[in-house]
Specification:
heterodimer; A: alpha+beta; Uridine Diphospho-n-acetylenolpyruvylglucosamine Reductase, domain 2; Uridine Diphospho-n-acetylenolpyruvylglucosamine Reductase, domain 3; Enolase-like, domain 1; 3 domains; 5-stranded antiparallel sheet; 4-stranded antiparallel sheet; B: alpha+beta; Aldehyde Oxidoreductase, domain 4; about 25% strand; globular
Chain lengths: ~290, ~725
């Protein structure tokens, strides 16, 4: 335990407006949502001397709001809240499944969707699902509000495109125009809980009446510095029938969009083989 | 009678409710925090140590090797490991400078302000390239050449096992202070008298001027066998220089990166058999990586060597073994103590032999397994308490091993199934107590005290580290005296209060020290009978009898010492004879399933029978079996310290992956009780046995599932995927 609480300053805004104002004044402060990642750095002493912007009193960011064209998740909504919400369970099952694989129950009770995004880990468990649902990150800052598509929120490992003073206020999930024919989320970690993913897959497909693929949204996590949609694979498959030949050809295009590495958790070879297996099995309808 | 009953664990409620305090939670008035500055090169000369002049060093106490009043040595087997590196470092994370400050964070900050310059020297990391041998052994039985000449087949194999982190729940932690001229050292430790022995040499003090006291200890698994001697020396150096209490509490990263682990090993087998699977010759070579200093490597290697031929009778055996130096943090004691490494090889090798002979490995084992009257590789005749066959038979039956092998063969042939299924088997023995003459050299003592007010107190240096020592002692004493277990308390291990009953290691606490407690209690029983007429039947009568027996003294102690059984012989020079007084035995069947898409392994069921002589407390014994087996499954499937340039780079629980409760499969535990005439109530050892063979059973099951024999642990999805490409 190398964290030194007395060397740190805690700022505790009581509303969203106050949070933005306080953060603008102290842009070096570290926003604290659920704290499940922040506390790891704290324990290592990496936060000593820093200011913390404690968001726990910003009640308006804790709400899940179902609106006409989608669901608005306040940035402080926890992984446990997401799993329990009936509309999310029905309309966004991949996100619900992803939240159930985050850490373990204790982490899911504290960890938040906004914190998960702001932390920008390459292995962020909710990102492939958010990517295929084409979520929008709603941001608030000293210059007002803006909406950032999920595909533009990450700049690299542990880096977002948030500007100084900006905070995530919500994540908007648009209802898909049509219900997907098939959807799957799969996380591959090392153990049954408290695992950091080696690869993660989320996939949605829409099949037309004539048997051709109307649309596909496919994404992997942990295979690149940020979550990656498989745009090349999706483009290739659109308008084709899913056959062994087309699926094999599609899988060859995976590496256009992902570039896994060897690290202390796994190998490039394993990540590629398993990711390809998952993609092929999903397209064949063999993975639930 | 208490023995054989599931008496509630004495340390249970306090630990369950959080009332039990680890050292870091114990309030020690005026205590400062000690931190350690460690080497950042694996091998090098220390050119200079400098201190950032902008830091207020006058607030701190700083200690280097120059401050050691006695020997700069952590006394153990060899006098090779310095307490603080002086002039040269031989591994990463070696302690060089110690700092204490009133404030923990400031102490860590101070450590960052120390700059050490080195002249790098070439390191050796590959154990097979090391030229420095700490210890080697040779076991020889029969005529190896003749055995191979007569063999119909010869099967060779090479097997590798990695290091492993003990992953106790409480990190290493020790505090030290001086009180009335006595240096008091207290903390999380397994072996108070090991610490005492080390402190005598560091501080040139007699035993009356040093006192070692154990605090509530959150697990050890061998990781607190020898390391606390180092940490105690560090804390005491700081405390004496500061003139106030100092505690050093490692955080998880430091504990994982700097302290001892299991020895990595390579084991090679060349085995000659008849065509129907009778063993004729076993030629075995063992290499272990000791790390930078000898620590306990010689005895770890000894146990590994003595278990290398497995639980099988073979007329011609040679085991050649060595443990070598590398420039990595020293490896040390870990549950199983060298045996899991060599047992992995000998057990998994049966699968290779099975392929060569087209005879299944169960049948092969049955044809060669130890029976009553068998002779081991060292020439030991097994004359009692041999439960190997019964364990094997019960495990095979209860797991439906034979039927499942066939069922899974059919399942695996169907390409539409999403998984491969496999079931694997292993059998082993585990010598209980110290090897060879070890118990004779230890000459352990334990006893029982009767106070004049009628308290009955067990006196032993054996520590409760979560395994149930205190509960077991009370049960053994209870039956020896014939009074309820609740009449007994167990003294805190404190070198000024309890005799030296040896270290809490080697599955010896119940069998050896429990035996001493039983003997001492019987002496007390005789005293009651002689001086009071009978053993008291009520607590009121106990008080009266106690006053009579104590004759005005505050207490009367009944102490006994270990006596060598007359018919046990061992020759250290030739490694012939009775390597252990007795062996415990175990068989295990692991039933698992592998995802065809991800190669993830899920253990569906573990069935294991373990012959421990007598379960003093069956529920605690079962807990030991499940816990030890799960630790073995972790080593088999998940755990692998990754070293780069001589340092562990995954020294966190995020990246060093141990099993969670969700990874723990359903267990069926069968306790087999083949009594040992010299153990208390027939008991043998149980602590390490369950750790020994989950590894080879997992690897055998993976082979059954996939058709690939992977001779390396852990059997990760990455390794399985690679084997299948």
């Amino acid at each position: 335990m190398r964290g030194d609480a007395k060397s740190m300053t805690v700022l505790s805004p009581r509303s969203a407006a106050e949070a933005v104002k306080t953060y603008a004044k102290v842009p070096t402060a570290l926003p604290l949502a659920g704290g499940t990642d922040l506390m790891v750095g704290w324990n290592l002493g990496q936060l000593n001397g820093r200011a913390v912007l404690d968001l726990s009193r910003v009640a308006e960011w804790r709400r899940i709001k179902v609106v006409g064209d989608g669901v608005d998740l306040g940035s402080l909504v926890t992984h446990a809240q997401i799993q329990a919400h009936p509309v999310l369970r029905k309309r966004f099952p991949l996100l619900v499944a992803a939240c159930a694989t985050v850490g373990a129950a204790q982490i899911q009770n504290r960890g938040t969707i906004g914190g998960n995004i702001a932390n920008a880990s390459p292995a962020g468990d909710t990102f492939p699902a958010l990517a295929v649902y084409e979520a929008t990150v709603r941001v608030i800052g000293p210059n007002g509000r803006r909406a950032v598509p999920m595909s533009e929120i990450f700049a690299g490992v542990k880096k977002t495109t948030l500007k100084p003073g900006e905070l995530i206020e919500a994540v908007f999930l648009p209802f898909p125009d049509q219900t997907p024919t098939r959807g799957v989320f799969r996380k591959v970690g090392t153990r049954a809980a408290q695992a950091i993913s080696k690869t993660m897959f989320a996939g949605l497909i829409w099949t037309a009446k004539n048997g051709e693929l109307a649309d596909a949204r496919l994404a992997f996590g942990s295979l690149a510095p940020t979550v990656k949609r498989l745009y090349a694979v999706e483009g290739f498959l659109r308008g084709r029938r899913l056959t062994d030949v087309s699926i094999a050809a599609a899988a060859e295009l995976m590496t256009n969009d992902v570039s896994p590495i060897d690290d202390i958790r796994s190998t490039r070879e394993y990540r590629l083989i398993v990711s390809r297996n998952l993609l092929i099995a999903f397209l064949k309808g063999e993975v639930k | 009678m208490s023995v054989g009953k599931n008496e509630p664990r004495r340390d249970g409620p306090a630990k369950l409710t959080g009332r039990a305090l680890y050292l870091d939670d114990v309030a020690i008035p005026g205590c400062w925090h000690g931190v350690t500055v460690r080497s950042t090169v694996p091998h090098g000369k220390i050119k200079s140590i400098s201190y950032d002049p902008s830091f207020p060093w006058d607030e701190c106490v700083v200690v280097t090797a120059k401050d050691i009043p006695g020997k700069n040595l952590v006394a153990l087997i060899e006098a090779d490991q310095p307490l603080l590196a002086d002039g040269i470092v031989r591994h990463r994370e070696e302690a060089i400078v110690l700092i204490a400050h009133a404030d923990r964070a400031t102490a860590y900050e101070a450590a960052k302000r120390v700059k050490i310059e080195y002249e790098a020297l070439p390191p050796v990391f590959d154990m097979e390239k090391s030229e420095k041998i700490f210890k080697s052994f040779l076991i020889s039985r029969g005529d190896l050449d003749a055995g191979f000449a007569a063999a119909d087949v010869v099967v060779t194999g090479e097997y590798r096992t990695p290091s492993q982190e003990q992953a106790y729940i409480e990190n290493n932690a020790i505090a030290a202070y001086e009180e009335d001229g006595v240096l008091i050292v207290t903390g999380s430790l397994q072996c108070p008298y090991y610490v005492l022995k080390a402190m005598k040499q560091i501080f040139n003090r007699g035993e009356d001027k040093i006192r070692v006291i154990q605090t509530v200890t959150g697990g050890g698994f061998g990781g607190k066998e020898e390391y606390p001697s180092m940490l105690a020396g560090h804390a005491a150096l700081l405390a004496l220089k500061a003139g106030r209490p100092v505690k050093i509490v490692y955080d998880r990263h430091e504990d994982m990166a700097a302290t001892t682990k299991r020895h990595p090993a390579v084991v090679r087998h060349r085995t000659g058999l008849t065509k129907d699977g009778k063993l004729l010759a076993q030629d075995i070579e063992v290499v272990m990586d000791g790390g930078a200093y000898a620590t306990l490597s010689a005895v770890v290697l000894s146990r590994g060597t003595l278990h290398a031929a497995g639980v099988y009778e073979c007329p011609n055996v040679r085991v050649k073994s060595k443990v070598v130096m590398t420039h990595t943090p020293p490896n040390g004691a870990f549950r199983g103590f060298g045996a899991p490494q060599t047992l992995f090889a000998v057990e998994l090798h049966w699968e290779k032999i099975a392929d060569a002979l087209k005879i299944d490995s169960l049948t092969l084992r049955q044809r060669n397994i130890f029976k009553l009257g068998s002779t081991t590789a060292t020439g030991q005749h097994l004359l009692e308490s041999v439960g190997a066959e019964e364990c094997l038979q019960k495990t095979v039956k209860n797991s439906k091993y034979a039927a499942k092998r066939k069922e899974y063969d059919r399942w695996n042939k169907n390409p539409k199934n999403p998984t491969w299924k496999g079931i694997g088997l292993s059998v082993c023995h585990h010598g209980a107590g110290f090897t060879g003459s070890g118990e004779v050299y230890l000459a352990s003592r334990a006893g029982i005290a009767l106070t004049k007010t009628g308290e009955l107190i067990v006196l032993a240096a054996s520590t409760e580290i979560g395994q149930g020592t205190n509960t077991m002692f009370a049960q053994v004493a209870s039956d020896a005296l014939g009074v309820p277990a609740s009449w007994f308390s167990v003294e805190t291990p404190d070198t000024h209060k309890v005799p030296d009953s040896g270290p809490t290691v080697a599955s010896r606490t119940c069998m050896i020290v429990g035996g001493l407690v039983s003997r001492a209690t019987k002496d007390l029983k005789r005293a009651f009978e002689a001086e009071h007429g009978r053993v008291p039947r009520t607590t009121a009568e106990l008080k009266k009898a106690a006053a009579a027996l104590c004759q005005g003294a505050p207490a009367r102690r009944f102490e006994v010492q270990y006596e060598k059984p007359p018919d046990v012989t061992w020759d250290d020079a030739t490694y012939r004879g009775d390597a252990y007084g007795v062996y415990s035995y175990a068989a295990i069947v692991v039933d698992l399933e592998i995802d065809k898409l991800t190669y993830e392994v899920r253990v569906r069921k573990v069935t294991t029978a373990q012959d421990i002589g007598k379960a003093i407390n069956p529920l605690l014994a079962e807990g030991q079996v499940i816990g030890g087996s799960t630790q073995g499954l972790g080593w088999a499937l998940l755990e692998e310290p990754i070293f780069k340039d001589g340092v562990m780079i995954n020294a966190t629980f995020t990246n060093y992956v141990i099993p969670t409760s969700l990874d723990t499969p359903p267990f069926e535990v069968i306790l087999v009780e083949k009594p040992y005439s010299r153990g208390p109530f027939g008991a043998k050892g149980v602590g390490e046995l369950p750790m020994d063979i989950p590894g080879p059973a997992v690897a055998a099951a993976v082979k059954h599932a996939t058709g690939r024999l992977i001779p390396t642990l852990p059997q990760t999805p990455e390794r399985i995927s690679r084997a299948l490409q």
